[in-house]
Amino acid sequence: MFYLLDGTKEMISEKFIGFYIHGSLAMGGFNPKSSDIDVLVVTNSLLAINIKVELAQFFLINSNNPFPVEISFMNGEQLEDWKHPSLFDFHYSENWRERYEKDLSNGTSLYINDKQIQDADLAAHITITKHRGICLEGSPINNVFPSIPRSDYITSIMCDFEDCLEDIERNPIYCTLNLIRVYWYLKEGIISSKQEAGNWGLSSLPKDLNSTIQKVISGYDSIDFDKKELQKFKDYIYRNVQMLL
């Protein structure tokens, strides 16, 4: 983890305000087989294009070595003047790998440029950072990040919720746990890791869903999920979430 911090600080230099861990690693639910290292970095001003090039090169080398990295860079102005979906300066995740590789190999600037892009997920990332995050180095979390309106957080997590309803057969473990996590938040206001949500679901959801949830918690890729059991689970969660919105 500290190699990511040290490399980032070296590239952004005097712009550095803080390096913050959120997600499963911060909440004690990190799974070496499936989890990302989730990071927010805050700077005091916009990043120049040459710094973004260095960041892209750095994360292309260091993400998936050994764990995938999902990291977003924001500056103080974007945080102080909060709008949802929020702007950000630079983002890296494995979904962006091919885009950056093409820009760097072709000398293009389709993705590495001076544009500020919106990301609806940042409302969720910041909320989790405020409640469960870890400041690895820099200014304290509460001094840097605003309190995100609950409505923005719900809008953010519901985007992923809708995706998971569609993708549950293709990615049953992630989607089932995430659907439970959203339901738990809407029902009781708890911000949780996917692992915590799975354990809550096992003890709190109807017993006839337990076998599906138990499969998900075990996390074995070789487990077969029946379409009917996934549909039954999805129908239950969707129905109950709609009642809470």
TrEMBL record:
A GO term, aspect molecular function: adenylyltransferase activity
Residue ranges constituting the Polymerase nucleotidyl transferase domain according to the UniProt record: 17-75
InterPro entries: AadA/Aad9, AadA_C, NT_sf, Polymerase_NTP_transf_dom
SUPFAM superfamilies associated with the record: Nucleotidyltransferase
UniProt keyword annotation of Nucleotidyltransferase present: yes
Domain Adenylyltransferase AadA C-terminal residue range list: 143-232
Keywords: Antibiotic resistance, ATP-binding, Nucleotide-binding, Nucleotidyltransferase, Transferase
CDD domains: NT_KNTase_like (cd05403)
Gene Ontology BP term (one): response to antibiotic
Catalytically driven reaction(s): spectinomycin + ATP = 9-O-adenylylspectinomycin + diphosphate
Name of the protein in its database record: Spectinomycin 9-adenylyltransferase
Organism of this sequence: Mesobacillus zeae
